[in-house]
Design a protein that fits this description.
The structure is a single chain. It is globular and about 65 Å long. Helices cover about 35% and strands about 20% of the residues. The strands form 3 sheets. An 8-stranded parallel beta barrel has the order 7-8-9-10-11-12-13-14, surrounded by 6 helices. A 4-stranded antiparallel beta sheet has the order 2-3-1-4. A two-stranded antiparallel ribbon has the order 5-6. It has 11 helices and 14 strands. By secondary structure, the chain is of the alpha/beta class. It binds phosphoenolpyruvate and manganese (II) ion (MN). The site of manganese (II) ion has 5 residues, from loops.
């Protein structure tokens, strides 16, 4: 059940409602939203009787039953899409949000020229890893704090918001000093202590789906962040592992409309890690627009053949420019469909 307290409900009234929910055998999670306190009651109890009792409290605005295991991220809890402000742009609203940049921050020149190129082409945010989750311990692991500084500098110089990955609880504070959005990579999607920690910081989180994470598991991971206090979570479909070997992963394109049915959180699509293959990124990007993703995250490098990580899936500046221009007619249709959907949900 989700219980929304009325605006201005006092602490005593909230405690009283929580106490009543506990008496019915539920566990209580409450979050302080922008405007009001919302309480999630989870567990097994007499739902009908509990709802009846809660409806009788003056301080309770609404109490509804939510059958999904994730509560706060579900469409049942909130029908309108969550719109998250990132730098000068926003995701989840009426603009298609494009994140672009190299897999890893390598040098000042590399990140600065990339930032300038992607900003010129219309990207909204700059990506770049400073802490890299690499399968082999012998591969480049990232420039760490030096990389964070360079990324921030490039973001500031171009007016782009920046996105970078945080891999450990210990580094949350450090990464948060430099970035606008905290990325949780595929390999950490079920790192529950990290998810809880990111719940406590006031910075949007980009949560990537794991290599073998189901949609329900992804939503439960998002629920961890939200229920620990941070409602600004962006989901990212980045391909899952299947028996197919022609591509690095298999893009689960249907995850986008499925997520759009189940959650109000914005969904980004990452065609680079989905495919591992530069040549098919334009086709996958068009598909992302067509299925209603809220945006794209692509890898761009000044010289992909010399990249320290993920060169084969990185676009050159010219390829990124071409992609952005090729998306324009598709984005017109996307804009129209957003206006229609927004009107329908009013
Ligand atoms: C990345 O975005 O560079 C990355 C490592 O992605 P993923 O966690 O999806 O593999
Ligand atoms: Mn990468």
């Amino acid at each position: 059940m989700i219980i929304s307290m009325k605006l201005g409900a006092s602490k005593e009234e909230i405690d009283h409602v929580c106490q009543r929910i506990l008496e019915f055998g539920y566990k209580v999670h409450s979050i302080q939203g922008d405007e009001r306190v919302v309480i999630a009651a989870v567990g097994v109890g007499d739902v009908t009787h509990c709802l009846e009792s809660l409806h009788s409290y003056d301080a309770v605005e609404s109490a509804v039953r939510i059958s999904a295991p994730y509560k706060f991220v579900s469409k049942q809890y909130k029908a309108e899409r969550t719109r998250i402000q990132i730098g000068k742009g926003s995701i989840g609203g009426e603009e298609f949000f494009v994140v672009a940049g190299p897999c890893s921050v390598e040098t000042e020149e590399q990140i600065m020229t990339t930032a300038q190129a992607v900003a010129r082409c219309g990207a909204h945010a700059l990506r770049g890893g400073a802490f890299k989750p690499r399968t082999s311990p012998y591969d480049f692991q990232g420039l760490e704090e030096e990389g964070l500084k360079l990324l921030r500098k490039a973001g500031d110089a171009t007016g782009l918001a920046v996105i970078t990955e945080v891999m450990t609880v210990t580094n949350v504070g450090l990464v948060a000093e430099y970035t606008d959005v905290m990325q949780i990579g595929a390999r950490n999607v079920q790192n529950f202590p990290l998810l809880k920690e990111l719940g406590k910081i006031g910075r949007p989180v980009l949560l990537k789906r794991g290599l073998s994470t189901t949609i329900k598991e992804l939503l439960l991971s998002a629920e961890y962040v939200v229920t620990h206090g941070n409602p600004n979570v962006i989901l990212c479909e980045r391909g899952i592992r299947t028996f197919e070997t022609e591509t690095r992963n298999t893009l689960d394109i249907q995850a986008v409309p499925v997520l759009n049915e189940l959650t109000h959180l914005p969904v980004l699509l990452d065609p680079a890690h989905s495919s591992g293959k530069r040549s098919i990124i334009p086709a996958l990007s068009r598909a992302a627009v067509a299925v209603g993703a809220d945006g794209l995250m692509v890898e761009v490098h000044p010289k992909p053949e010399a990249a320290w990580s993920d060169g084969a899936q990185s676009l050159t500046f010219a390829e990124f420019d071409k992609l952005m221009r090729a998306l324009e007619p598709y984005l017109e249709l996307w804009n129209q469909s957003r206006v229609v959907t927004a009107a329908a949900s009013r």
